[in-house]
Amino acid sequence: MFEKFSKKPFKERLKDTGFLIKNSFTIIGKDKDIKTPLIHMIVLSVIILTIILFASVAFFLDLEIIWTLLIAIAIFLIVFRFFYDVRQKADQSWIVYNTLIGKDISYKDSHDHTSSEKRTLTFIAIVNILMKYAGSQRNKKKGIMGILINLFLAALIEVWDLLSHYMLPAVVIEQRPLKELIPQIKSLRNNVPATLAGVFGIDFVGDIVGSLLIPVYFIFLLLSVLAGYLISLFTEFTIITIFGFSFSWIPIVAMMYIILLFGSILGKIVESIKVIYFTIFYTSLTRPMSISPSMRDNLTNYLLMKESDFTTFSRSTPHSRYIDQLADYISQYKHSGYSENQIIQFLISKGYPQKDINEASRKANNYQRR
Fold it and tell me: In the Cβ-directed half-sphere of 219, how many Cα atoms lie within 13 Å?
């Protein structure tokens, strides 16, 4: 399935990431419900990091019972987050899909819909945990065998990351058992339209966020150590000594919290963008005629990461969806060999208003010219 998969150079991935951050939430409209799952994921991450912050403070203050309890809670929430995030991503994928086909659903509607897929989503979350563990085992073995194991784990993790993002929209849209969906996902590689060739194996973010933040982390940590040293000149409270160097731990703990908080929020935004991107891509491959006609060209530009006037998107209205469907009908019958006059007369005989027929006919003609 991913035999042609290759990672883009850092500069290209940086450019792609910037493009997607800029356009992902615009491409599918300004429906606040699309952002709700992202907000939920961010809130949980903030809660976990805040608990870890207080646990760190309790540790330095020798409050053993408190920091032990807080760490236990944090570990539980970290494991829980794998399952919670998968569910939120599934909710977001369903909202995006419905936006693409011209429906306006609420977050609650989406959450109710994905409740029927809890078992499959739980399986995906468990595999995510296993992949996280596999990633932690990299570089632990030395020698030739260690190199081979590291290469295998690296490939396995990347392929699963890509596969899981295709799997998520497939699960929530198709609502079929995973064993039926996996062959379908594999077959997508052979059914990509020419306009989207090469997109199927795209890795547009990878570890780009972490790569960008590492030097920033380092600089701010150095500044926090300096601040800690200056504090130690005025008070002995909260002072620790490492290799003969004394400093206050307060600025370092505070800076670590801020850095991890920023990185976590940015990471969740990237994950959300992946959900949006792959839901659009999956829908474009499997249900192209379900997509609102007014969005199709711009969606192709988005998937190919080409600049377009994405800001012109607006929420579709019942009338616009009705005209789009009528335009699709006219286009289909034109391709079947019927003349425009025959189609118009047929629609009139079925009670369609002349004004609506003319509007749909113009739209159908515009599709043909593109």
Answer: 5
| Residue 41 near residue 271, CB atoms below 8 Å | yes
Give the chain's radius of gyration (CA, Å). 26
Q: Tell me how far apart the alpha carbons of residues 165 and 98 are, in angstroms, rounded to a whole number.
A: 18
Instruction: Name residue, tokens 């969005």.
Output: 295
The Cα 120–Cα 16 span in angstroms is: 31
The residues, ordered by sequence, that sit 6+ positions from 135 with a Cβ below 8 Å of its Cβ are 153, 157
Q: What is the value of pTM for the model shown? A: 0.71
Averaged pLDDT in 10-residue chunks for the chain of 370 residues: 47 65 65 88 96 92 92 96 95 91 88 92 90 74 70 70 79 81 65 46 52 80 88 81 82 89 86 85 78 69 61 57 76 75 82 84 68
Cβ-based burial of 89 (10 A; exposed 0-12, middle 13-18, buried ≥19): buried
